[in-house]
């Protein structure tokens, strides 16, 4: 089963990857420092190892043994891709949030190719918010998470530069009238 492994510096995700079915993972070009490293997979509790020290020129090996969830909550998974407007080129380091009401229930950070995986999302209907530096955030609504099912979400982000250039060339396109499509909203100025 796929797992998400993340290197964290405080609340910031430094690197994130999704393992293949055999559970192997590695990270390249991680600066020396002290990090928390977490692993999470569908149906298992998240495990975080805190205070891992990485010295320059050294390698750390971390094995995880994840425990089954026993909280009585049903979970599904959310996976997909955050891409540029061409629909192909992934957005590296985008934050993807599963939002219920005004609360972020869980989130993931995209890999270099724009893919992400949230392995344990409580069942229900969510809005999905994607944001990345240099892009306008986007919210997609009514994504249903079913027990033991994988829900796929594909989100395309508009670069802030492209949006401003387009809107200055075409007075009909205005940030207040932009309509990204059914079930989606564009958020301008969201932080």
Protein structure class: mainly beta
Query: How much of the polypeptide forms β-strand, as a percent range?
Result: over 45%
Number of strands: 12
Largest beta-sheet details: 5 strands, antiparallel
H/E element sequence = EEEEEEEEEEEHE
Output the keywords.
mainly beta, 12 strands, 5% helix, globular, 191 residues, four-stranded antiparallel sheet, disordered C terminus, single chain, 47% strand
What can you tell me about this protein's structure?
There is one protein chain. With 191 residues, the protein is mainly beta. The protein has one helix spanning 160-169; strands at 3-9, 12-18, 33-41, 47-54, 75-84, 95-100, 103-109, 115-122, 124-131, 138-145, 150-157, 184-186. It is globular, with a radius of gyration of 18 Å. The model is unreliable at 171-191 (pLDDT under 50).
Summed up:
The protein has 191 residues and is mostly beta strands.
Topology diagram in text:
Elements: E1 3-9, E2 12-18, E3 33-41, E4 47-54, E5 75-84, E6 95-100, E7 103-109, E8 115-122, E9 124-131, E10 138-145, E11 150-157, H1 160-169, E12 184-186
Parallel strand pairs: 5-11
Antiparallel strand pairs: 1-2, 1-3, 3-4, 5-8, 6-7, 6-9, 9-10, 10-12
